[in-house]
């Protein structure tokens, strides 16, 4: 991926405004008698089998350009400050342009906690191993983005090896592997196939936030927005997976505020990934960004209190209506 394209993605994603999505149609029932104090609320959970203090993480974005280096430097300091897992942007560029490696290594230099590498499924097992070892990642994510590739003039056109590569990486990497979409949502058909490849963790990464169809349409000036028809809203993707027992499910795509996190957890997600929300923080001074994340955590606790539950596992008891 070229450095210019990386910077285009950042600039265009930043220019998009928040929009309404299906989380707005899910209404939770609160209580005025929670019988709890703020101090009782415990937000800790597990992320890909590892203990974490909060049910959200910095999701995949960037690497490979000077601007990407600065963003990764800033966000990895935030990740370290709060002990949040951080997913890197696609590391595929490392294999074409070795000078890009530092923009990924900076994440491990700043962050002692959980780092998840990120590759596309063209990468072989050997490349996946290099991606992980370069940044001493604790896990690896593989992104599926067929539509994004097809709407890019310079994108991939041959997807024959993707399933084989995923299967081989899951089997031999010896680290947790999470398969994610990039904001258009994993379809049930994709998920059924993913399961046969041995995958245990998925991030549905649905629509309702950043859309790579819209980003690529803006870049190329050819309007492919009608292909958003294929997208699956994040809340809908979680509802579709309500009876799923074999996979641990993560939610991203259009997580705009703490209430979207709580709704995702109620709908069955283990934790939530936020990209655009964290990208917007990079415009702030570090102290101001820290304050925003502190407020986010505090507001998660306030919502738990409104719902009358003290731990994330108790969210299962919360009733909701879809309007
Ligand atoms: C992304 N996303 C992404 N995903 C991925 O797996 N590898 C990548 O390299 C990138 N690159 C990237 C760049 C930028 C600028 C953005 C905003 C996003 C997709 C991201 O991880 C997530 O799936 C979507 O952005 C949806 O989440 P939000 O933005 O609605 O919170």
From TrEMBL:
GO biological process annotations for this chain's record?
A: isoprenoid biosynthetic process
Q: Which GO molecular function annotations are given, in alphabetical order?
A: FMN binding; isopentenyl-diphosphate delta-isomerase activity; magnesium ion binding; NADPH binding; oxidoreductase activity
Any one GO CC term of this protein is: cytoplasm
Tell me the residue numbers annotated for binding FMN.
60-62, 90, 118, 180, 205, 210, 254-256, 275-276
Q: Is NADP among the key words of this record?
A: yes
HAMAP family xref list: Idi_2 (MF_00354)
What name does the UniProt record give this protein? Isopentenyl-diphosphate delta-isomerase
The protein's gene is named: idi
């Amino acid at each position: 991926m070229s450095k210019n394209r990386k910077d285009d993605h950042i600039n265009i994603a930043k220019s998009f405004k928040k929009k309404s999505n299906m989380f707005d149609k899910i209404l939770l029932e609160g209580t005025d008698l929670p019988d709890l104090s703020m101090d009782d609320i415990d937000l800790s959970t597990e992320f890909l089998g590892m203990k974490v203090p909060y049910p959200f993480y910095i999701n995949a974005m960037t690497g490979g350009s000077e601007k990407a280096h600065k963003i990764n430097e800033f966000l990895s300091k935030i990740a370290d400050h709060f002990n949040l897992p951080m997913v890197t942007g696609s590391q595929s560029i490392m294999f074409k342009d070795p000078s890009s490696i530092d923009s990924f290594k900076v994440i491990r230099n700043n962050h002692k906690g959980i780092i998840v590498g990120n590759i596309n499924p063209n990468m072989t097992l050997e490349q996946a191993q290099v991606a992980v070892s370069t940044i001493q990642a604790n896990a690896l994510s593989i992104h599926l983005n067929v539509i994004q590739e097809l709407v890019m003039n310079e994108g991939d056109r041959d997807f024959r090896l993707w399933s084989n590569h995923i299967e081989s990486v899951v089997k031999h990497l010896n680290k947790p592997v999470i398969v994610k979409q990039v904001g258009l949502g994993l379809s049930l058909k994709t998920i059924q196939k993913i399961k046969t490849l041995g995958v245990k963790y998925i991030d549905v990464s649905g629509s309702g936030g950043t859309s790579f169809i819209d980003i690529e349409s803006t870049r190329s000036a050819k309007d492919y927005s009608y292909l958003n028809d294929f997208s699956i809203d994040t809340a809908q993707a979680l509802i579709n997976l309500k009876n799923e027992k074999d996979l641990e499910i993560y939610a991203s795509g259009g997580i705009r505020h703490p209430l979207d996190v709580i709704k995702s957890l109620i709908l069955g997600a283990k934790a939530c990934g936020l990209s655009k929300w964290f990208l917007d923080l990079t415009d702030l001074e570090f102290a101001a960004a820290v304050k925003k994340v502190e407020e986010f955590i505090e507001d998660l606790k306030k919502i738990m209190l409104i719902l009358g539950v003290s731990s994330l596992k108790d969210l299962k008891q919360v009733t909701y209506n879809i309007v």
